Amino acid sequence: xxxxxxxxxxxxxxxxxxxxxxxxRLSLSDExxxxxxxxxxxxxxxxxxxxxxxxxxxEG
Length: 60
Known about the structure:
Helix content is 62%, strand content 0%. The protein is mainly alpha-helical.
C-alpha cells in the first residue's frame, strides 16, 4: 500500500470518527448537530472540508 493510500485511509477514519451523527457534517461537540438552515450552504461547507482534507492528503 502506498503512503498516499495510507494517508487517505487515515483521513477517512478521522472524518468518520468526527462525523459522529453520520450526517456528513463535522461535529466536534457531543450535541447532535442541528440540520442546516440552508442545505445548499451546508453542501458548500461539506465540499470545502472535503477539499481541505484532500489538499492535506496530497501534501503528505
